[in-house]
Amino acid sequence: MTVTVHGLLLAAGAGRRMGTPKALVDDWLVRSVGVLREGGCADVTVVLGAEFERARALLANAQVRIVEATDWADGMGASLRAGLAAFAGDPGTEQPEAVLVTLVDLPDVGADVVRRVLAEAMPLAKAAHPAHRAEPPPVAEPPPYAEPPPYAEPAHRAEPALPPPVAESAPSETRVLRRAAYAGRPGHPVLIGRDHWAGVRAEAQGDQGARSYLATHEVELVECADLATGDDVDSRPATDPGTRLSVDSPASEAGESTPQ
Q: What is the spatial distance between Cα 30 and Cα 57, in angstroms, rounded to a whole number?
């Protein structure tokens, strides 16, 4: 089975503390699309809201699907709902098994983080890796030849054996919940299997994003602190060159961060 994962980039907020929508900051928007693609996402959907037309113009050559969150001012939950609704409500295209949700304001999260989070969602790629290739079993020596016993008529005909019960299949990738962690702290990106989309949409409110849903479900953490900090950048640096960017460390829930 080939697992298809699409990227979902949330970039709809006004960025009040940044002073401009984060989708318009430097190359963050285009860079984030590239990170998802290079990390292994088959396609990318971008959710825009504040300054929609200006942000959309930056993606003119990006070959992405753009979704407008008209209620973006209600918070990150609105962006997440709009993005997931676009996947669930498009009968003309085949749905992916999962979406990988990330935020536009994570400039140090690169394609290597995306690849690591997706690694366990790619069973074919994993099976082909030398570290996971099982050694073939040894060839058994044939037993020595023995004369067959004389034929005896069976006392009665045995009933044919019933087939064994079908074992319950392992959880499919449509039920996956997996996310990056940074020194043990949950962050982005977050991989959400298709079976969870309706539940996440129902609970994504305000700036909570998927927090309440993920809190009541088992989520696999994938440690990525050796690759990035996972910090979301909250404001531009001051004119004093010694002043650092203001960051939140790290963005903790899918669709949840400081307001964009």
A: 11
Please name the residues in contact with 99: beta carbons below 8 A apart, sequence gap of 6 or more. 5, 6, 7, 8, 45, 83, 84, 87, 191, 192, 194, 197
Burial of 72 (0-12, 13-18, 19+ CB in 10 A): buried
What is each CA distance from 123 to 110, 128, 172, 193, 242, in whole angstroms? 22, 9, 11, 15, 47
- Which domains can be identified in the chain, with CATH numbers? 5-128+171-248 (3.90.550.10)
- pTM for the model stands at 0.75
Condensed to tens digits (0 to 9), the pLDDT of residues 105-154 reads 999 999 999 999 999 665 533 323 333 334 455 556 666 666 656 655 55
Neighbours of 123 (CB within 10 A): 13
